[in-house]
Structure formats: C-alpha cells, structure tokens
Amino acid sequence: MPEFEIQHITRYIYDSPARDSANQIILFPIKDTYQDVLTQEITITGHPNVDTYIDYYGNEVGSFTYSQPHSNLVISSKILVSTKHRPFPVNAIFPAQQWEDLKPLRYMVPYIDFLRLENFDGYEELLALVRELRTVDDTPYQIARRFCEYVYKNFTYIKGVTTYETKLDEIWKLKAGVCQDFAHILTEMLRMMQIPARYVSGYICTDKNGMRGEGATHAWAEAYIPDYGWLGLDPTNNIIANENHVRLAVGRNFMDCSPVKGIYKGSSGHKLEVSVTVDDDEPLSHEEILENVPTAAPAANVNPAAKNSYQRYMEMVQQQQQQQQ
Questions:
Q1: What's the pTM value of the predicted model, to 2 decimals?
Q2: Where is the Transglutaminase-like domain (predicted)?
Q3: What per-residue confidence (pLDDT) applies to 306?
C-alpha cells in the first residue's frame, strides 16, 4: 500500500492588520476502504479552535475564527495518507441491465445532484457528440472511459486561458483549459448519459513520472458504475484515478470543494502564497511555517514549473478571502 506525505500551506499577507477572520477549510482527506489518513496536523496562526462537521456530500469541513488583529494568516496541513489499489469494474456483463440499473438513481438522494445538467449555449452540440460516441453494446464503464479519452485527446491543456469563473460555454468553445475545466466537461458528458458524475479535488502523487498536476492540487471526475460504485477518471492524464490519487473532497463542481475560503474585516489589499509538496524530504515544521512569513508580498515561493494552473486558480480564488468593511 503506497503512503504519501503531503504538506499544504496557505499564507495570506495583509497590507494592514485584519481582524475577525472567519474561514472554512476542506483539507481533510476522505477516509474509506481505499484511502486512510494515518496522521494529520492542522496548524493555524493564533491557534484558534477548529470545529468540524460533515457536509451534504460527505466531506469533513472545518471552520474557525481568528478575531485578533493580524498582518498574516497561515493555514498548514500535514498529512500522511495510505491508499490501496481498487480493481477495475467488470465491463462486459449485461450492458442493457446496467443501464436499467441507473434509471432509478434519477430519483434517489444523493445521486440527483450528480445528474443535474448545466444549461449552456453549446449544450445541443455536446449532446449530439455524446450520442455519437456511444455504441449499442457499451456498458456505462466503457462509455466513461471513452468520454475520458475524448476530453484528453480533443481538449488542449493550456495554462492561463481559463479562470475559476469560466463557464462551460467558454470551455466548450476554446476546447482548452486545465484539470478543473477537463473535469467539468467530463462530468457534463457523463450526466448527459444519465450516469451520475461528481467533481473531485485532491492531489496526484506519481513520483515525478510526468503526469499533469502531480505534486500540486489536482481535479478529476468520478462516475457511478452499477454493481461497482464511484470510479475515478482523470481526463487531464487519461487514466483511472486510483492509488496515486489522494481525494480531499467531492461535489457537484469546483465551488463545492474549496480547500480554504472565508471573510475578514480590514483593508481589501492582501496577497496569497500557496505551497504544496508531496513526499518532501524535509517538510517544514509548524513553528517554521508560522514564523517564516514575509512582511512584504513577494511572488509565491514555489517553483512555477511544479505548479499547474488549477493550483494557481485555487490560490487566487478558491482559497481567497473576501474583505468586509
């Protein structure tokens, strides 16, 4: 069973002291048969109490408030995660029955939310493509793999052409983007075939094998396969998401899985730094993390080549705080 040590550090640096910073964090990896959290340490500036609860989608969510005036806020998560390989679905058993087994899910919680389609200008065009890609004898598993391959081959991985606000309209027109965009397109295609599909955020840990998104925050999709369960599909790399993918959260889309978000009182001027390391030989101690905060706002102290643009969007938006006067 592989084990991965992951350190995820978020730093906010304010132009002037902020106060009453209320935040939500989804930094707690999913725990199930195929993924276990051996250890986790969460350290936050000021050491506020973190209250946790389970949200509607089964994610563990933390919330905290730091009331004292502060010029910076650091949130550090250090985890040791163990994963197990999950066998692939058996894909040739009674295809017609598998499609019949999917039909009742349209009326069942929690699958309803993961079947809800987004209305966008390219809907009919994408729907025609989805129908063209399906053959009569396909199983849901075979369709899911084919859709994953289609996105991988027909959408260009380009950093900086989309943002967190980019809608399906633009992604479909551009045929380009990053892992967040690839996951959103794939979930829409699967839902058009009445296959429940959900968005997943986490990390890909592949020992520097050249995978897009490795050593950083990543995103992919999961499809619900009858008599199997949720199958991870990584269209950015055209692979099954398995023991090298560490899952943080699931939801309908990007916004449901935000690792850090919140509000504060004070000046609107602030900068953000995010660092994610996987199996780092010398991870920072929590004391070093909390103390080593610059007074100015330099560029993020992360090698740009080691970061994908999805991580940068997470830095700028998904983990950004909103200022209140």
A1: 0.84
A2: 171-237
A3: 39
